[in-house]
Amino acid sequence: MNTALLAWLRAQLGPATDEQDLTTRYARLGRARLVVAEVLSERRAALLAEPLRMNVDGVVTIDQTNNLAGLERQIAALEDLVAPDDPAPGEAGPDLITAPLQPVRRTR
Fold first, then answer.
1. What is the pLDDT of residues 61-85, one digit of tens each?
2. Which CA distances in Å does 59 have to 27, 55, 56, 64?
3. Which of 53, 38, 47 has the alpha carbon at shortest distance from 70?
4. Among 47, 36, 30, 28, which residue's Cα sits nearest to residue 11?
5. Most buried among 15, 20, 41, 79, using CB within 10 Å?
6. Rounded distance between C-alpha atoms, residue 44 and residue 71, angstroms
């Protein structure tokens, strides 16, 4: 993974994101956009696993609903972002060749 790609990933996920974790995910997934989507989805799931709002009268109030909404907006906006490893518009992608299957003729 090159430095431009790592910088883009950190810009999307924050500077405290572990570089080794990003490298491992990128090797497994192969696309920067998929890495960001996976990390954001895990963060969203972690927020949903805990109570979003907790209130102890007169002591403390914790409200994570804005954080959840922000993560959901960031996941939705991911489609509009251009990642450094995205193919350029008009660039040929991998070739897909299809061939029809023919039954084998059996003679007796």
1. 888 888 889 999 999 998 888 888 8
2. 46, 8, 5, 17
3. 47
4. 36
5. 41
6. 6
Among 1, 21, 12, 24, smallest CA distance to 82 is for 12
CA distance from start to end of the chain:
59
Angstrom distance (rounded) from CA 93 to CA 98: 15
Contact 87, 93 (CB under 8 A): yes
What is the CA 41 to chain-centroid distance, rounded? 7
Task: Write down the pTM of the prediction.
Answer: 0.72
Q: What span, in angstroms and rounded, lies between the C-alpha atoms of 104 and 68? A: 57
DSSP 25-86: HHHHH--HHHHHHHHHHHHHHHHHHS-SEEEETTTEEEE-HHHHHHHHHHHHHGGG---TTS
Query: Helix (H, G, I), strand (E, B), or coil: what is residue 13?
Result: helix
